[in-house]
Amino acid sequence: MWQQARWNEPLLFEVSTCSKPTFNITIDTDIVREVGDVKNYLPKEILRSELPRIPNLSEIEVVRHFTRLSQMSYGVDLGPVPLGSCTMKYNPKICEELIDERVTGLHPYQDEDTVQGILEIMYHLQRWLAEITGTDECCLQPPAGASGEFAGALMIKKYHIDRGESFRDEMLIPDNAHGSNPASAAMAGFKIIRIPTSESGEVDIRALKAVLGSKTAGMMLTNPNTLGIFESRILEIADEVHGAGGLLYYDGANLNGILGIVRPGDMGFDIVHLNIHKTFGAPHGGGGPGAGVICAKGELVDYLPVPTIGFNGSKYFLSYNRSKTIGRVSQFYGNVIPLVKSFIYLLSLGPEIREVCEVAVINTNYFIKLIKDLKGITIPYGDNKFRKHEVVISLENLFRDTGVTAEDVAKALLDRGVHAPTIYFPLIVKEAHMIEFTESESKESIEYYASIYKEVIEEAYNNPEKLKRYPKNTSVSRLNQVMANHPLTRCPTYQMLSKLRKIR
Ligand SMILES: *Cc1c(COP(=O)(O)O)cnc(C)c1O
Questions:
Q1: Fold exhibited by the domain 353-481
Q2: pLDDT tens digits, 328-367
Q3: Relative to the CA of 146, which ligand 1 atom is closest?
Q4: What is the CATH number that goes with domain 111-350?
């Protein structure tokens, strides 16, 4: 139903031939005539000894090449991308439409008086996001979720240092957390204390209490957590963490599970980051840069990065007036274009933003209803409780019965032309499939996805060997995933850089 093209497009270099007349770049410019050949000004040792091998193609060949490439790629504009935790929702075209040279033509060094429009947009976005999160102020600067987290971790660190409690060096993080949480906290110099998940799929409060103490700097949580389960004892958790002198950090990368219904600030969180590129309609995953807005409450506002956007009643301005700020975390004002997209997204929804959450949650639970009785799968933790924005399925039984893994099933899904879920995350679920449809998917598309899912699981029981050989009906079959990532030393670019920088 959503199949992308399956051919394997060659590189432009591979289809290039010398035999046809094509566009020719001549360097017969005024500058060359005036100053002579540039070669005269460059050191001999860096001059090329032969001409660069630029593909020789006609215009239509180039156009067709890129058109075919575009047809080979799969994205939300073609079909669902149910990658749990990634919130791959539809990016409304109105948001693209309104980003024109009025936005892209601005320069960050322009005088404030000449950019009042964009500052006004950013000012309102700050206010709206503070309202949505139940915090006092937001800074739009961090360019990604993880960099919002890192900024938040630095704020927590500085807060304790300012109070003369720099000995607080432990960050508590649940074992189902997104990997960026422990990474950001560790980068900020914290020791990571892992908090286990109880059978109910929520923070194990007894284990939490056991580790809270004078060294606690804070706790990073996402609620609903990565199992899609709402931490029902969040107020108690907040009291415990605050009681021990720590701060509570909210990972709001995926706000779809609570948007317009409850607010992190009201749950007791002190600092919140948001992924504009997940929850607020800006594209991501190869689709464009992100924004990891960071928000704070009460005295933590003073620690936010600078600048934020201020308004004095008649003029918008860049405000650096924050006594305890951790400083700048990104060049200029962050990635402005996704911010404007999220402004348009919010403006188009208004108070109906609540429906985003409602539909996303119904979609998750409808999918669960369609697949939960399939042989071979279980939905661990939380004892059949309703899920919020996403669900994590375990294929452990299927693996035990047939030897077919979560990855094999994911590859078989690709073979049938649907996008695979997130696999092997969170780490506490064996043979995990993490699925999130967002508000974008219709009842029909969820039913279709569920039918394909069912077909694959049944085939795994009937013919497990076949599952090991998928995908066949795709441009490339199974990639060597280790090679793709690991032996950097085999990568020509890396080799070249190593030589240049003399790094090993
Ligand atoms: C995506 C995600 C992040 C990190 O966001 P990036 O923009 O990829 O850095 C953090 N936490 C959760 C729960 C996420 O899903």
A1: Aspartate Aminotransferase, domain 1 (3.90.1150)
A2: 999 999 999 999 999 999 999 999 999 999 999 999 999 9
A3: 9
A4: 3.40.640.10
